[in-house]
Amino acid sequence: QSSCLSNVRQIGLGIMQYVQDYDELYFPSVTERTAPITVANTPEARFIWSIRGKTDPYIKSQNIFRCPSNPDDWPTPVSSNWWFSDYGFNHNEALLVAPPANQAWVDFYADPNTTDGGKDFGVSDQYGLSDIDSPANFLLLADSERANGGASRGGVYPQKYMGAVRPALLPPADVNLQQARIAARHIKNGSPVYPKGGANIAYADGHAKFVTTPDKTWRSYTDNDWRRHPKP
To answer: Are 97 and 28 in contact (CB under 8 A)?
Structure first.
């Protein structure tokens, strides 16, 4: 868990360096599937669109994206699935021109409880640190995995908490439609330290910590650590 926390902290600091170099704005993409359709579907061409490519100039090694506590190997890279990561970035994809049908943010587009189309969740190249009300409480990066237990490709989303908001559109049990979420994968002495395990999280102000109950990052639809402007 401590080695993983070090990884998360280093990636988080790398993200801050990126922001300083890019007019105080975050990434336009963190996963290769959101690359423009004009980009060749090769590992070399898609690398720069992944979180690993975006942070590459600021980290020591690509091995930092592997969590030592994850017992599962990454899948063999194949077309459209080149760059895996055990950590995910809280990326806002609400502004994508044509999101895939199973895209995590499709849930927010149709949400009757909001008028912003999900634009207040996460960050992208449209937002910077100044757009976040409380950087010390804004989840930027975390241990992540897909709903079916597979490896993330760079994103992490609050979609798992949306079942109560959009149950008809996205049943919580439908793992085929759910993208990467926080992975509470850390155990100690062979058994979970906490009932559901804990996760390492990096925040927008640069600090990182082990969170014993990751579900507490979501208190309600309007009050959570995933929004730039949460409202208790």
So the answer is: no
**SS3 letters across 34-50:** HCCCCCCCCHHHHHCCC
pLDDT, one tens digit per residue, over 74-116 is 989 988 889 999 999 999 877 776 554 445 454 454 455 555 6
Cβ of 75: how many Cβ atoms within 10 Å?
A: 10
- CB-CB contact of 11 with 141 (8 Å): yes
Q: What's the pTM?
A: 0.87
Distance CA 118, CA 153 (A): 21
Place of tokens 């849930």: 107
User: Do the beta carbons of residue 153 and residue 33 sit within 8 Å?
Assistant: yes
Q: What letter represents residue 131's amino acid?
A: D
Which has the closest alpha carbon to 69: 205, 212, 192? 192
* Secondary structure class of 25 (helix, strand, coil): strand
Among 97, 85, 81, 93, which residue's Cα sits nearest to residue 119?
A: 93
Q: Which amino acid is at 189?
A: N
Q: Where are the domains of the chain?
A: 2-217
Element (DSSP H or E) covering residue 55: helix 51-55
Tokens of 59: 């980290």
Q: Tell me the residue ranges of DSSP E strands in the chain.
A: 87-89, 139-145, 181-182, 187-188, 191-192, 199-203, 208-211
